[in-house]
Amino acid sequence: MSEQERIQKQRSERASDTAEDVSVDASKGDQLKADLDDLLDEIDEVLEENAEEFVRNYVQKGGE
Amino acid sequence: MGVRSSTWARVSISSSRAISKVLGIETEYGIAGGPDRDPITSSSVIVNAYAQQGRTRINWDFDGETPDMDARGRVDLTSFAPVVETHLANTVLTNGARLYVDHAHPEYSSPECRTPLEATLYDVAGEEIMRRALGIANDALDPHHAITLYKNNSDGKGNSYGTHENYLVRRDVEFGHLVRAMVPHFVSRQVVVGAGKVGAETESALEHAPEFQLSQRAEFFEEVVGLETTLKRPIINTRDEPHADAERFRRLHVIIGDANMSQVATFVKVGSTSLLLAVLEELGTDVFPAMPRAPVHAVRAFSLDVTLRESVPCEDERTRSAWDFQDELWTLAASYVERTGASAVGDEAEVALVLTQWREMLDGVRDDHDAVADRVDWVAKWRVVKGYQARYDLTSNDARLRAIDLQYHDLRPSHSLAQRVGLRSLCDESAVREAVHNPPRSTRAYFRGQCVARYPDEIVAANWDSVVFDLGEGPLQRVPMLDPLRGTHALTAELLETSATASELLDALDR
Description:
The complex is a heterodimer of chains A (64) and B (511). In chain A, 80% of the residues lie in helices and 0% in strands. Chain A has two helices and no strands. In chain B, the strands form six sheets. In chain B, strands 4-5-6-1-8-13 form a six-stranded antiparallel beta sheet. A four-stranded mixed beta sheet of chain B has the order 3-16-17-18, covered by helices on one side.
């Protein structure tokens, strides 16, 4: 392997490493976003129907 | 009856070593609904529902409760000492915990635990006990009168209730040194263990109109040091009621903490605090970061700033953000662990877990929220609040966002958002089921819980430092337990196994 070939190989390895890192991060982002969308769907199903009244009626006496 | 020397012998404390960080967490749960919507009645229904499904009801013994004792050696005449309510439902469980009505909330006070992981397990067991109590109570109620419970600390309208931690500290640590060493941690730990809050509810915080805060509790703190817990809440509470030999022990009663849904957050909250108390006992105050000049301003300002950039001036002329404080405190704890092993806090693996989780959460809240949304409560909650707001293009004061905040802490599996956001768990489910019924083996809670389980008909009352027996003839007999590290499985299991009755147990203790 010539010196130039070696450098090119190193470069391409480095480039592909970088590309892989980026793609891993991106897929993690997509995954998290998909998860969040699913989660928000689920929250819609279980959230108290009348949020206004629910929040207004939640009154506590202080404690401790 | 005197202290029984064979079982409860004194252990001398050498001068510069940290003592075992015996600890526990008390949680007042938010409560709604009930037959007449009165929170005191509903709280009694919850406590009685759980107590009456057991084999017995054993009362709490109020002898020796002195919540108005002040660690500063005097009582501030402008302060209001806590009132001990003796007429409300109040019981001792077989796992060594106390379950009772405190003011207008059901409260679970965990048994004394020996390590942060054990304290986390018994906090999670407390949630499970409340969930079971809720199920039993609601089965007997008209569905329109169903009760709901929330493991949170405020109602969003200016009313707060507490999650308190307790740590065993050497008596010879001066109270002023506790203040000096621990204030930096107590104002800043919210960046990793805050439970998050939509909006604000006190006058000074409302001025800033925050969309979201790191902490449920921060805006309620008004003093640096004091005895109160309900008015003019102090960052360091001075209650001096060790529930143990007062010549040897202090109990640091920490009132500035949020109830965590994240088990890892609970673990890091009590683990970091235990480590820093051990550092104080062994190395003194000089190694701690400087105090913020205005601690009350600091704790509130840090809570209001989700960017974590807010810095405050300190006594050493530097400024620090909450993150900076935590970074310095983590480094201090890590070097202490490296030098000593920190066996006062836990074994090597457990202490290492405190440090790695604390570090990852600290780095995550600054650099990568997604990496810690499975552990940091405020990050997990904020992610959902922001996501929901964006999806429906809501204004920041929309009631649905506040409903999400409340429901994050809802104990009902059908409604809990904390159970849906993907929080990591730390405690095995079977270990939690065990901890609902059985005491930790590592402290005097073992003896208390075992006595309650084995001799329910002969025990008239129990409290943190004694169990009172009534054998039917003669006077009541109190077994004192003034050392939290005695009465363990190792020291009393054989005695309990071989005592078929309470009478045999008391005879054996007298020998």
